[in-house]
Amino acid sequence: MAAVLMKERNISAVVVGADRVVANGDTANKIGTYQLALAAKYHKVPFYVSAPSTSIDMALMSGDEIEIEERPSCEMMFINNVPIAAPGVNCWNPSFDVTPAELITGGIVTELGVFPASELLNKFKTEEREAASLVLSIG
């Protein structure tokens, strides 16, 4: 429905949350976020990620380094212990997906402002240096 909504209605922006944002701006969020970003890019709708600065992990350089939790396949293959999938069927059940920074066309929204994903590393490294200087000058 989201892609059709972007196609048929005058959508001004898509805003999603994030569980983790890494240094290059790649973002991990609940499964389905990546496909929303792809649809937004196709339909030229700005795509924003909103997260507190505490969700930004400068220790990881790219989304390839984010460990993605996989849920048990039985969650999708059984309801109340009753099988709903054909015998022999298997499934993959990741909890999160990673949206590449280049699809975050609007920016990353934090309590410190809105930043293009490409500027995240420089901005937050500067913030860390300023915070360390402040601690040293107070101490």
Automatic annotation (TrEMBL):
InterPro entries attached to this UniProt entry: IF-2B-related, IF_2B-like_C, NagB/RpiA_transferase-like
GO molecular function, one term: S-methyl-5-thioribose-1-phosphate isomerase activity
GO biological-process terms attached to the record: L-methionine salvage from methylthioadenosine
Pfam families cross-referenced by the UniProt entry: IF-2B (PF01008)
Protein family: Belongs to the eIF-2B alpha/beta/delta subunits family.
PANTHER family xrefs: METHYLTHIORIBOSE-1-PHOSPHATE ISOMERASE (PTHR43475:SF1)
Protein name per Swiss-Prot or TrEMBL: Methylthioribose-1-phosphate isomerase
Lineage: Eukaryota, Metazoa, Spiralia, Lophotrochozoa, Annelida
